[in-house]
Design a protein that fits this description.
Pfam families: DUF3723. It is a single chain. The protein has 641 residues and is of the alpha/beta class. Helix content is 54%, strand content 7%. The strands form three sheets. A five-stranded mixed β-sheet has the order 1-5-3-4-2. Strands 6-7 form a two-stranded antiparallel ribbon. Strand 6 and strand 7 form a beta hairpin. Helix 10 runs parallel beside helix 12 and helix 19 packs antiparallel against helix 20.
Length: 641
């Protein structure tokens, strides 16, 4: 039955094609027009590829497989036939495979259904006297089903991008055309399974978030279907949904929610804007303002519209997001998520958020207080609602992961039999794991995993590992009693270390250094991670600044990524936290000064005591010399007598 329906559909389409077809003609390139909202935008890479083909090989414009389908009003076609002094029958007969030249009036635009890349390549390659292409003409009242079929008949075009595949499949499924949707899906290699996994996941919640971006065609060049299964496997649905909503909000803000305007946003515009921060960066502002006001970007908009867009751009206080930045930043989020998964066991239906939410017993919390970590292992308490406590605590777990994810890599999976002796994978730092569990407990989270990590003595592990590393077990052995005694002795030595004072300085969002930014998406570079990790605390990430600098800093990038996944916090009470942090800093500074004063006094007393002892020693030595001389004189006197 299903096969019969497909045959009937094919026969119906062929009948429609026969009725609507008006013939084939050569048409000047300047007449050929492609709608701005076509799913497939011009790719410079493909244009350059075709130009090279045209230069090194014959341009096969007359071959049927290279024809371009176009739709035309019957009246416009009649006028062109008359102006060209040919007949309608000539167009249909196409004698000797030499179609006639069909002349349209100046400034006429013939709407083509595909072939954008070959036309652009031909415009840049062919001389004006030979600038034409072969076009198959159909009347404009052709139904949408036939138009779709013509559009999908790609010839010498690069395969559709992931974004095109997703948009086309969703278009078919929304129109109830499951047959076309299933036939188009495999055109992107391996996409069918990944898309079905996404569409079926949790009643389509993630799909709906992607679908909300379908009205912005320029975003979809960044789609990565092959990454969807990893995204789902991360179990970070809340963070993924927030980032996708963040993309939507920013682009809707730029165009004030006008759907018609959003559909005019092309790939060139998105590529120019993504990861820019014109409000803060003078360099970004200068480049984007020139491109925008000159019409290089947002080219489908008028001058006044572009000026309004520019005013909105200058108000966005984070990096402008896109689907490209989303998939890049997912890599970073995944590494951090692995750290949080050590604190709780996730069920099949859990996300990191829901699993940790269940391990946050509100009834055990103390009064209306929220705990904030303002520096490494330095906490302050501020008044706050019960509803704030989990949100603040949850965010701070992520922030610790962002600071220390390199020291908490996932444990390598043990295989029954390794076929190859590969290099070892770096193990997680025991001290960092223990401290992470202690932080989670301090913030109010309770789980068996947290308690187990807390009970593991990282100092004992480090001491034991040091002994075993110094004397390899395959060559030496320790008596168990001696081993435990040695471990205990080393641990006692660890306790003599004095903590370094915490850094309470504030990070800069901008810099006059043009190289201060580093990577704007994905993983930060090592220097940026080391520099920014001491500032990745909630009090810093929700501070804002009105100043503009030559360039944004790498901390500005981390702040933007954090806000994209987690958003801003209303009524966070940062002022109180900052005041308390300053009071803590002043107290610590006073304590430091007092310790220095006491130390100086102690040194002075020790110096006086040393001087007293030295004086006593000299007197004692002088007395001993005098006594020796007296005894010597007595001895000599006795000898004379």
């Amino acid at each position: 039955m299903r096969g019969s329906r497909s045959i009937e559909q094919e026969l119906r389409l062929e009948a429609e094609r026969f009725v609507k077809y008006r013939g084939t003609a050569r048409v000047r390139l300047e007449v050929l027009h492609f709608q701005w909202d076509e799913l497939r935008e011009t790719s410079r890479k493909n244009v350059e590829r075709l130009k090279e083909v045209f230069r090194t090989d014959e341009i096969r414009r007359l071959e049927p497989r290279n024809h371009i389908p176009a739709v035309v009003n019957q009246s416009d076609l009649d006028n062109a036939i008359q102006a060209s002094e040919i007949s309608a029958e000539t167009l249909l007969r196409n004698p000797d495979n030499d179609p006639p030249l069909l002349t349209f009036p100046a400034h006429h635009r013939l709407t083509c259904l595909h072939g954008r890349h070959r036309v652009q390549a031909a415009r840049e390659t062919l001389p004006p006297t030979d600038a034409w292409w072969t076009v198959d003409l159909y009347v404009a009242d052709t139904n949408s089903e036939l138009r779709t079929t013509l559009v999908e008949e790609y010839s010498n075009e690069e395969k559709p991008s992931d974004g095109e595949v997703y948009r086309k499949v969703r278009q078919y499924e929304r129109e109830g055309n499951a047959v076309e949707g299933s036939s188009f899906r495999p055109r992107a290699e391996g996409s069918s399974t990944a898309l079905r996994q996404l569409f079926d996941y949790k009643d389509g919640e993630l799909t709906a978030a992607f679908d909300d971006l379908l009205d912005i065609p320029g975003l979809w060049d960044g789609m990565r279907i092959s990454t969807l299964h990893k995204m789902i496997g991360m179990k970070c649905d809340e963070e993924v949904l927030h980032y996708l909503e963040h993309i939507k909000v920013v682009w809707h803000r730029l165009l004030r929610g006008d759907k018609t305007a959003l559909q005019k946003v092309d790939q060139a515009t998105v590529r120019a804007l993504e990861l820019k921060a014109p409000r803060y960066s003078k360099q970004d502002s200068q480049v984007l303002q020139g491109q925008l006001l000159s019409g290089q970007i947002f080219s489908a908009f008028g001058q006044q519209e572009r000026e309004a867009i520019w005013n909105e751009l200058r108000c966005i206080d984070y990096l402008i997001p896109s689907l490209f930045t989303f998939f890049e930043d997912l890599k970073y989020l995944n590494a951090c998520a692995d750290c949080l998964k050590r604190l709780v066991k996730l069920s099949r239906h859990d996300t990191v958020f829901t699993a940790l939410q269940r391990k946050f017993p509100y009834e055990s919390q103390t009064g209306d207080q929220c705990v904030l970590e303002v520096a490494e292992s330095t906490f302050v308490v501020r008044p706050g609602r019960a509803a704030d406590r989990f949100d603040l605590g949850y965010r701070q777990l992520w922030l610790r992961a962002m600071r220390r994810y390199r020291e908490m890599p996932t444990d390598a999976k043990k295989k029954k039999k390794d076929l190859l002796a590969k290099p070892g994978v770096r193990r997680a730092d025991e001290e960092v794991l223990s401290d992470s569990a202690a932080q989670a407990d301090r913030l109010g989270f309770k789980s068996n995993e947290i308690q187990a990590l807390k009970q593991r003595s990282s100092d004992r592990e480090i001491a034991r590992n040091a002994l075993l590393k110094a004397r390899k077990p395959d060559r030496y052995q320790y008596n168990e009693t001696v081993m435990e005694a040695n471990v205990a002795q080393i641990v006692r030595l660890f306790t003599t270390a004095v903590p370094m004072p915490s850094d309470y300085s504030s990070p800069a969002l901008v810099s006059e250094n043009p190289n201060a930014t580093g990577n704007r998406c994905g993983f930060p570079d090592e220097d940026a991670q080391e520099q920014d990790s001491k500032f990745l605390f909630i009090t810093h990430l929700h501070n804002e600044s009105e100043e503009q600098g030559e360039e944004i800093t790498s901390f500005f990038v981390r702040r933007s990524v954090y806000l994209a996944f987690f958003g801003k916090l209303a009524d966070l009470g940062m002022a109180e936290a900052e005041q308390q942090k300053r009071r803590e800093q002043e107290t610590r500074e006073q304590e430091t000064r007092e310790q220095e004063r006491l130390g100086q006094e102690r040194l002075g007393q020790e110096r006086l005591e040393q001087e007293r002892l030295e004086h006593e020693r000299l007197e004692r030595e002088e007395h001993e010399r005098w006594e020796q001389q007296r005894q010597e004189q007595q001895r000599q006197e006795q000898q004379r007598v």
